[in-house]
Specification:
Layout: H1 2-18, H2 21-25, H3 27-32, H4 39-65, H5 70-78, H6 80-112, H7 117-132, H8 136-162, H9 169-172, H10 179-207, H11 211-237, H12 249-252, H13 259-291, H14 296-313, H15 316-339
Helix pairs in contact: 1-8, 1-10, 1-11, 4-10, 4-11, 5-6, 6-7, 6-13, 6-14, 6-15, 7-13, 7-14, 8-11, 8-13, 10-13, 10-15, 13-14
Keywords: Membrane, Transmembrane, Transmembrane helix
Protein name: Membrane protein YkvI
Transmembrane segments: 7-26, 32-54, 85-109, 115-133, 140-162, 182-201, 213-236, 260-282, 294-315, 321-338
């Protein structure tokens, strides 16, 4: 029973790390898949297989080499010199995304709960601090609570969409004619998400002693990600093309379901922002600690303080530069992950 519990915790943590705020709002699914028509169903299936394969592979690699942080994995993939540079670039990007997640947490308090933006920020910072003090076990527990909520929401939108007159759009809607965009998008999505997710997947795979538990947790988590991608695509396709005009497409699917469901949806959005936030800070902390002699508590506090100040001024300019750069860099990282072979699970 203990093994099964660990497998589920690993799967939920993997799912919670990938299924971030962009996924929960529907923007990522719309941008990388649904906008391209019925062929997105095929690209999602391929994406799901890749998540099963490569997510498991990251954790197996980490387990085999006893990785302290994602830098150890990047050194394995790219060599000592390039691995360090790629890890440093990832550190900058993770910190940028951390600042945006903090700002997102404050915005939800202000826009939807009508509570001060600053109070929302301080609440998110304090909650993140106390969770991160508990280490990887706390991250496992948080995701074990959040991911079932996401799965519940996924079931709700599926049941709602089945009744829609356009429920068949996910299979029959016309396909985007630009095949380069169609086939590049899922690989950018996989590379971007997995290269960031390694901040948590690497220490997770390294700290779990039983390799079979790591292996099956990765497989179950990858399948779960695929199911949620397909469910989101199914629901959003039924509302195309009008759904593309909204910043939070998923929000439009639940507007007629009552305040209780809308409140649950807001909680899920906040929870997904929070899981992304703590995952990024945890990975950053391990990376900085590997390069310096600072205590992990001092590192966490420093990241949260700097993130707080950056969240006051916005981060759109830096992100508009880093996201495209990191998206294409992630293709090189993805290729190295695909071609490097791990040891067998025994």
């Amino acid at each position: 029973m203990e093994q099964y519990k660990k497998i589920i915790q690993i799967a939920f943590t993997y799912m919670g790390t990938i299924v971030g705020a962009g996924f929960a709002t529907g923007q990522e699914i719309l941008t990388f898949f649904t906008q391209f028509g019925s062929i997105a169903t095929l690209t999602i299936l391929i994406t799901s297989i890749m998540f099963v394969w490569l997510g498991t592979k990251i954790m197996i690699f980490a387990h085999d080499i006893g990785a302290e942080s994602y830098e150890d994995l990047n050194k394995l993939l790219f060599g000592e010199r390039f691995g360090r540079w790629i890890s440093f670039l990832m550190l900058v990007i993770l910190f940028a995304i951390t600042s945006v997640m903090l700002a997102g947490g404050g915005s939800i308090f202000y826009e939807h709960f009508h509570i001060s933006y600053q109070i929302g920020l301080f609440f998110t910072i304090l909650l993140a601090y106390f969770v991160l003090l508990k280490g990887i076990n706390a991250i496992l527990i948080v995701n074990s609570i959040v991911v079932p909520l996401i799965l519940l929401f996924t079931m709700i939108i599926i049941i709602t969409t089945i009744q829609s007159p356009n429920a068949g759009n996910w299979i029959f809607r016309s396909t985007e004619p630009n095949m380069l965009r169609v086939w590049l998008s899922p690989f950018l999505y996989i590379g971007f998400n997995l290269s960031l997710a390694q901040a948590v997947l690497v220490p997770l795979g390294s700290k779990i002693r039983d390799k079979k538990v790591v292996y099956w947790g990765g497989i179950l988590g990858g399948i779960g990600i695929g199911v949620m991608l397909l469910a989101g695509h199914f629901a959003l396709s039924a509302q195309m093309p009008g759904i593309t005009q909204f910043q939070i497409p998923m929000g439009m699917l639940i507007v007629d379901l009552g305040r209780a469901i809308q409140f649950l949806f807001l909680i899920i959005i906040y929870a997904e922002i929070f899981t992304t936030l703590i995952a990024n800070i945890y990975g950053l902390t391990l990376q900085i600690r590997q390069r310096t002699s600072l205590h992990h508590q001092a590192i966490i506090i420093s990241i949260l303080i700097f993130g707080y100040f950056i969240s006051q001024i916005g981060f759109s300019t830096l992100l508009s530069t880093l996201y495209p750069l990191f998206g294409f860099l992630s293709l090189g990282w993805l290729w190295m992950m695909m071609r490097t072979k791990p040891s067998k699970v025994s």
